[in-house]
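Case study B.
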Amino acid sequence: MAAVLGISGEYHDAAAALVIDGVVVAAVQEERLSRIKNDARLPIHAARACLSHAGISAGDLDRVVFYEDPIEKLERVLVSTLRTFPRSLRQFPRALGAQLGGKVWVIDRIAETLGVARDRVTSTEHHRAHAASAFLVSPYARAAILTVDGVGETTSTALWHGEGSQLRELGRIEYPHSLGLFYAGLTAYLGFEVNEGEYKVMGLAAYGTPRFGDEFAKLIRIADDGTFELGLPYFAYLADAELGFGPAMEQLLGPCRPSQRPWDLEHSADDRRYADIAATLQQVTEEALLGLARQARRRTGEFALCLAGGVALNAVANARLQRESGFERVFVHPAAGDAGGALGAAILGAIELGDPRPAPLASAALGLPIDPGAASALARELGLGVRTAKTVAGEVAELVAGGKIVAFCQGRFEWGPRALGQRSILANPADRDSRERLNRAIKRREPFRPFAPAVLRERAPTYFEGAPNDLTPFMTSICPIAPAHRARLASVCHVDGSARVQTVDATTAPELAAVLAALDHTIGMPIALNTSLNGAGEPIIASEIDALGFLMSHPIDALVIGELVITRGAG
Amino acid sequence: MSRLGNRLRTIGRILRHFASRKRWFLVPLLLVLLLAGGLLVATGGLSYVAPFIYSIF
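Model:
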């Protein structure tokens, strides 16, 4: 029986997760509390929040596990610098600054900042933490596991076999050959911000034709056994961390897209070419993942596949894995990126100390709760209208059916990048005006990015082909919308007829399920447009203070916190 | 003092790691890194942060 804190950070999305006696008690991304999107700093706020939620102090922790080995990482940086010398000369001072400025001392810093004895702080391997995060909270007793990201210590891709509480590595692909860096490099080429723009590339891909197959054959070679190799001369990240792609890629594919130019897929031939490049990138990535998954099926003989690592957040690719890889069931951890590594590290530590494997993850609501009492007091102080709803679900459904946009906050915030009904914006999925207002005035997103629907689990098969499955509760996959319903669901239907659907179960998300059931009466479908409760470039809302700030700075019609309905006009 | 103890312990781990992996050829580079790192810390040069495309180090 142990209390184990897992920590990820220093590279991408930092997070902390707490496992006590084999139960996942809390999991929090630092960005939610620091209010800095993708905050990579050591997640001290998140760690303290996990401890405070559980009512324990740092001194009660039996172990703290960092999600990767900082010394293995240092070795990879040194070896890589040597291999690419003298081209790496420019990045040498930066690599040195990053490593010696903090990263190699991370275990010491965790111990000192949290006030935990140094010998209680350990580290695990990056991809093992990912594999644990995917398999050990999945619904499967045995499974093949693929971990695919940019790079861990030295590994970019790994195949595992999971059985009970055990993980056995079967093979790996090492840096610099990396699907994550391949996708990131081309994300940068297309003018999007790396670690943020990959979702946009995925959305853009549906507008293009994958006609750059010959060119991409030079960028990546996919072998029959599922392994792959990048055409390294086209990628510059080995020698310069500011650039993902080199001049050779621009010679091959044409000039890169300026990052700030507005998109015009209708009138700009250049933008249509970039959409075609995005389509080819997406197709090639899916084929590489399919190759890896088929190899995993052959090697393990299992019927279930678990995925984690940043590349596993590619919902379109996950849908193809579900359909075409030969696995009967597929599960993706809701925080599949580096944040999820914190939970994987905590579980590995707990198992090592003799605790059982946690129960399958039924809900991603693992963050801090919102406080309706505090929200009410603050809202009145701010002169906002506050009232208690007679029936929350009924009132939200009435508002949404009437074309209103509602911010919906219930209970603990979500773990991972998706809003799943705890910190969501809800709108009418049949109303194009709501979608336009959301896109232009609230979210300020590129016009080609789709919104997602949430549907009652038991009614999902009527509207979405292939739903529900193990991916849909966490919105980590897409499904085709049934042709008969595409016109009515235009606001959540992507250009290719798909939607990144969330299936909602009354036992795990009762508040959102009640709203969907009420919507069935008002709009005739148990479906809402569900998008994350955040403004452009901001992390998703965490506290009642964030939520009230959002209401005051964005043109939404109502904010619902618990049973409170808060509006801008005096109540 | 405990901070110094922690840092010395980490340096010991780094040296043991490179010795056990027979990565002796990296030791000169490592020493240069440690020396330069010390200078950077002493001169405050670490405040310079590059706009990384992807945090690979």
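Confidence is low (pLDDT under 50) at residues 46-53 of chain B. The remaining cases will be described in the next quarterly update.
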